[in-house]
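F.,

This is the one I mentioned.
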């Protein structure tokens, strides 16, 4: 048994002081309130919140941070640069990069990640002798640093969508595709993950997967399913021309929308799309720091929530890795478009990042501090300039509107104390990031 004593912790019923958490086999066994610290308990000083889920990540995109701005352009020109980076990665170099990126996530307060993985094959599209080599290396990296991972193994079949049909994969896209949905299903059936790892499904987008294949994947697999949906206006235009419907409508007709489905971005949905997502009980993963970095636009977060969709957050391209900034940006972007403050309550945004994020990537019951839940905890110190003077009667607001990744002092995953004093206990994160990224651009 391991014990953690929290000066102040966010429980399902609200904030409590002097909380003692007992952990057995990675699961919370007891939560005691108004107790004194046991001698053997690790003290978490500050504000302790449930672990948070990064529900949408492309780990290798981290290599592009601050390297794509000089020429301006759009999402599509950024994508060309991303493809050029994707082609450079080997199983070993991807492992080194993913270790560093996942360690950065942990230090920021993300305790679980949904890795939207599509670097399947060699650069020319030839499968590795072990067809899931790249996937396994990504999972190995997560296990090494201790973060929970849902490998959202991605089906990617086509190189683009025109009014008269799909273009074949070409150039740097070749390593992404399994060529047919049957080959995709065969390859992913061979995944055998261990540790704090799960397998999920990702349908890359309507640009890369045809409606018939979307339906096959949706009917064949019973696990969390994610897809990029209406990230760009051009995506909607292409889909309407080719399929006489929006991407959301196509996914709905394919039978994929459900409580286990997560629409990533949903930046440009129609009112009908919003109703379809809400009525199905789907999740929507908002990635505000990426959506503004790539000039995607501002999605209708409040409308999606009112319609019944569950919101969660992701850092996507990792222009920023900071769950507090993602939460805060949802409300701040709403203020810019609605001219109203307080559209989202702080408590709801914390729930989106924790409980609902865990659910979206298949870790049901996670993202809360309660008996039977995974023992995943994040502690924010109160000693920084950002949190100095925080109103102790408004801890939710302090977390969402003042805190940042730099305020995370301690992180616990499955009862293991992985981050202390703001640093991963076994990975020199900054050095690992610099080494892995510089090696790609030599």
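My design for it:
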């Amino acid at each position: 048994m391991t014990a953690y004593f929290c000066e102040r912790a966010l429980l399902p019923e609200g904030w409590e002081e002097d909380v003692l958490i007992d952990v057995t086999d990675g699961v919370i066994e007891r939560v005691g309130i108004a107790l004194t610290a046991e001698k053997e308990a690790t003290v978490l000083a500050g504000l302790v919140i449930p672990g948070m889920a990064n529900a949408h990540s492309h780990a290798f995109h981290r290599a592009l941070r601050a390297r794509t701005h000089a020429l301006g352009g759009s999402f599509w020109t950024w994508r060309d640069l991303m493809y050029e980076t994707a082609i450079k990665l080997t199983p070993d170099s991807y492992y080194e990069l993913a270790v560093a990126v996942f360690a950065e996530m942990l230090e920021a307060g993300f305790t679980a990640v949904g890795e939207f993985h599509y670097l399947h094959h060699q650069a020319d599209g030839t499968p590795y002798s072990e067809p899931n080599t790249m996937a396994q290396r990504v999972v190995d990296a997560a296990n090494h640093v201790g973060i929970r991972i849902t490998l959202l193994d991605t089906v990617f079949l086509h190189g683009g969508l025109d009014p008269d049909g799909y273009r074949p994969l070409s150039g740097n896209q070749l390593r992404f595709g399994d060529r047919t949905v049957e080959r995709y299903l065969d390859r992913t059936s061979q995944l055998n993950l261990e540790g704090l790892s799960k397998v999920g499904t990702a349908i890359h987008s309507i640009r890369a997967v045809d409606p018939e294949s979307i339906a096959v994947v949706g009917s064949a697999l019973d696990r969390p399913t994610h897809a990029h949906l209406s990230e760009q206006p051009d995506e909607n235009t292409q889909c309407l021309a080719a399929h006489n419907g929006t991407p959301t409508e196509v996914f709905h007709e394919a039978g994929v929308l459900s409580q286990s489905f997560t629409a990533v971005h949903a930046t440009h949905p129609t009112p009908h799309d919003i109703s379809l997502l809400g009525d199905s009980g789907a999740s929507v993963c908002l990635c505000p720091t990426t959506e503004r970095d790539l000039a995607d636009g501002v999605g209708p977060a409040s409308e999606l929530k009112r319609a019944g969709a569950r919101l969660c957050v992701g850092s996507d391209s990792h222009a920023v890795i900071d769950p507090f900034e993602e939460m805060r940006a949802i409300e701040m972007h709403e203020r810019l478009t609605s001219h109203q403050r307080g559209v989202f309550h702080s408590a709801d945004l914390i729930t989106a990042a924790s409980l609902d994020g865990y659910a979206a990537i298949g870790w049901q019951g996670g993202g809360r501090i309660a008996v039977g839940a995974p023992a995943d905890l994040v502690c924010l110190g109160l000693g920084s300039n950002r949190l100095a003077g925080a109103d102790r009667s408004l801890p939710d607001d302090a977390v969402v509107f003042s805190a940042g990744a730099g305020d995370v002092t301690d992180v616990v995953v499955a009862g293991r104390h992985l981050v202390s004093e703001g640093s991963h206990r076994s990975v020199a994160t900054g050095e690992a990031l610099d080494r892995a990224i510089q090696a790609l651009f030599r």
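The two ends are 47 Å apart (CA to CA).

Talk soon.
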